[in-house]
Specification:
Layout: H1 2-8, H2 11-25, H3 27-41, H4 48-57, E1 60-66, E2 76-77, E3 80-81, H5 82-98, E4 103-107, H6 118-126, H7 128-147, H8 164-179, E5 184-191, E6 207-211, H9 218-232, E7 248-251, E8 266-274, H10 278-281, H11 283-305, H12 310-314, H13 336-347, H14 369-381, H15 383-386, H16 398-408
Parallel strand pairs: 1-4, 1-5, 5-8, 6-7
Antiparallel strand pairs: 2-3, 6-8
Length: 411
């Protein structure tokens, strides 16, 4: 009988008993013990040295979570659903990581259909009661910690509560990741904010969310996020939303990151940009941009483990090489050729033009003033072959296209 009771004690019950003890012996001793109790509640579950050791001796197990799903589509702009964009990015991420023997990769959704993979769907179906208990214990534990001042509430952005079913699925993914010794959980999202009512909003750029510092997976997650941010900012500008100005944002209440101490793995949630940005809106630029985002993310993760990796050093962008034809000029929108042109000019150190940043002049596939100025500088740099004595035009004609193909049109 005693064995049964001892085995069945929940973490919440043990915590409650601890709190009662603290309250009985007085506030002063309670505060003295708070750090020790906090450490027992949220011990370090994974560290950066742990990850590096796994990379060198075993494999890094990565779980890729394309944000939202076929039922709950997330943000929407016109006919574009966030869940479809995340699937495109995840599809490319999966391909890059699966080619690398150092990684073992799992996705929560089938990257062809968008449905949950059989493994994850089966887990939801067969362990529904267990997942609910897991969620409730985690939430109760957190409530008690906060109510007795053992843990500070630290919320960067106030959010609307998610539906019970979405919460169930996210907690289920966390529980599955814990039970399957996942090292890194990589959540893929695209951003939006209220108030622009169907038109494109004013904010652009990416941000990365990590677990708040009081959680046991916080430090390893933040270390990884910093490497990701430092690499991605060379391709896409950081978010212009004031709340995201720091680039890497700690969050205590995002379930995806392990809210209520529900996740052992290092976890990052990448908001790759705003859903209404032109590179995601136009079909011609959407696919190459998804590949580029995935490529840069993979390079960053690889760099986190192996700074001198040949994979990291071999290429700077998935948008090149490219073969151009003439006729690219100011006013063109949603062009894969313009997107590759911007990448080529960036590689040549001409884009964004002097005094501008990727916030001012993002890679969008739309030919505007930034691209025109950068093309003029390219033409001036190769004046003898491109201009033939004429002034720079800022337009990609026959001679400019030929030079672009010569420099950037081959591996």
């Amino acid at each position: 009988m005693f064995r049964t009771i001892a085995t069945g004690l929940s973490v919440a019950g043990i915590l409650f008993a601890s709190f009662v003890f603290v309250m009985l012996i007085g506030d002063s001793l309670g505060f003295a013990l708070s750090d020790r109790l906090l450490g027992s509640v949220f011990p370090i579950t994974i560290s950066t040295p742990d990850l590096h050791k796994a990379y060198m001796t075993e494999k890094i197990k990565i779980l890729i979570v394309p944000g939202h799903d076929n039922e709950y589509g997330g943000a929407q702009y016109r006919d574009i659903r966030e869940s479809d964009l995340t699937l495109g990015a995840a599809r490319n991420l999966e391909a890059y990581f699966k080619k690398d023997a150092r990684f073992e990769t799992v996705t929560t959704r089938d990257t062809s259909t968008g449905n949950y993979t059989p493994v994850i769907q089966s887990y939801f179906d067969q362990h529904r009661d267990d997942i609910v208990v897991f969620k409730n214990i985690a939430k109760k534990k957190m409530e008690m910690l906060k109510s007795h001042n053992f843990l500070d509430r630290n919320v960067s952005i106030e959010r609307n509560s998610v539906s019970s079913e979405i919460a169930f699925r996210l907690y289920g993914i966390n529980k599955w990741a814990n039970e399957n010794d996942i090292d890194i959980v990589l959540h893929v999202h695209f951003n939006d904010y209220p108030g622009h009512r169907g038109r494109a909003g004013d904010h652009t750029g990416f941000s990365i969310y990590v677990p708040e510092r009081q959680y046991g997976n916080a430090d390893a997650s933040k270390d990884l996020a910093r490497t990701l941010f430092d690499e991605l900012k060379n391709t896409i500008g950081p978010s212009t939303l004031p709340l995201e100005r720091d680039g890497v944002i700690e969050d205590q209440e995002l379930i995806a990151l392990g809210a209520n101490g529900s996740l052992k793995s290092a976890s990052v949630l990448i908001e790759y940009g705003y859903i209404y940005e032109p590179q995601y809106v136009y079909e011609a630029t959407r696919s190459p941009m998804m590949q580029e985002l995935a490529f840069q993310t993979y390079r960053a993760v690889k760099k986190h483990f192996e700074k001198n990796s040949p994979v990291y050093a071999s290429s700077q962008t998935a948008l090149l090489p490219y073969r151009w034809s003439d006729g690219l000029e100011k006013g063109i929108k949603g062009s894969a050729g313009v997107l590759a042109l911007q990448a080529a000019l960036k590689k040549d150190g001409l884009y964004p033009p002097p005094g501008k940043s990727l916030i001012d002049c993002p890679l969008t596939g739309s030919f505007g003033a930034c691209t025109e100025l950068a093309v003029r500088m390219f033409q001036q740099r190769h004046a003898a072959e491109v201009l033939g004595g004429d002034s720079p035009t800022g337009r990609v004609g026959v001679a400019t296209a030929k030079k672009l193909n010569e420099v950037f049109g081959r591996d």
